[in-house]
Amino acid sequence: MTLAAGLLALALGWQAKSAPAPVQFDSSKAWEHLRQMVSIGPRPSDSPAIRQTRAYITRQLSAIGLTVQEQAFTAATPNGPVEMVNLIARLPGRRTDRILLTGHYDTKLFRDQVFVGASDGASSAAMLIELARVLKGRPHEFTYEFVWFDGEEAVCRNWDDCGRPGAPDHTYGSRYYVDAAKAANAIPSLKAMILFDMIGARNLKLRRDTEFAAAWLNDLIWATAKRLGHGATFIDANGDVGGDDHEPFARAGVPTTDIIDLHDYPEWHTPQDDLNHVAAGSLQIVGDVILAALPDIEKKLVK
Q1: Where are the alpha helices (DSSP H) in 19-151?
Q2: Other CB atoms within 10 A of residue 282 CB
Q3: Is 266 helix (H, G, I), strand (E, B) or coil?
Q4: Which end of the chain has fewer CB within 10 Å, C or N?
């Protein structure tokens, strides 16, 4: 080998070694976030436990260099005014237009049972923390905004017990976010909204919402899942989900999708929604699919 060839080989080897590998989704990290939140116990809005949860989420994001904005508001509920706080963190992209990655971090208030919400609350909140860590280490065209909604759950026992036209008893945080965005004329900057809710089940089955979700967004994500070999999780079946946090965005004209296992999780809103009924593997599947789909979502939005 000539001296020049040797120097070239050394240079190429140095470049290969210096190029960092893409940051990967780590379900063990997501699982630990889920476990930590479940260990706090029930986390209904305006409780000491949800304040502890909020502090935990903020610490995790601060540790990776992200600033957390608290969007505080007072919700008028059937039980009177309740103080609530949405958490918002942003990863700037080349564009200021935003893709929202969202979920809720409150748990359903029950007075007659202990409900720790391992899938319904903790799984989505944990997913967002880990996605923020991964996406911080990857290039992206759009600004990613992570939102942890407060007040997704109904205050009354059943979803529609206390709601009335124009004032449902649920989705308080997402409705407040959308109203604030409208007041700031910011809706046009929201190009897509992906909602995670109940994604931790051991035998995870994710059906497509067709009532409020954008068909193109569903098609792209489900096609990505099939390509990655996860068609048994992202199943080809419809499962409409009215009244979740994506609905206010859809009504405001923002393309949305709801990644949720609502129809195939019998532990929903029972004491059995605990660590024994969720799995890190389910978080890994969802994280891998969404991360693989995001570049194609960006390409679609650029056109």
Answers
A1: 27-40, 48-63, 124-136
A2: 25
A3: coil
A4: C
List CB contacts of 205: < 8 A, sequence separation 6 or more: 233, 235, 261, 263, 264, 265
Please give the average per-residue pLDDT across 15-36, as a whole number.
84
Question: What is the rounded distance in angstroms from the CA atom of residue 126 to the CA atom of residue 287?
Answer: 11
Cα dihedral 182, 76, 168, 246, rounded to 10, equals 40
Please give the Cα distance from 244 to 75 (Å, whole number): 17
DSSP 3-state of 193? strand
Q: How are beta strands 256-260 and 190-197 bridged, if at all? A: parallel
Q: Is residue 1's pLDDT more than 70?
A: no
Classify residue 26 by burial, with Cβ atoms within 10 Å: 0-12, 13-18, 19+. middle
Note whether 296 and 224 are within 8 A (CB): yes
For residue 32, the tally of other CB atoms under 10 A from its CB is 16
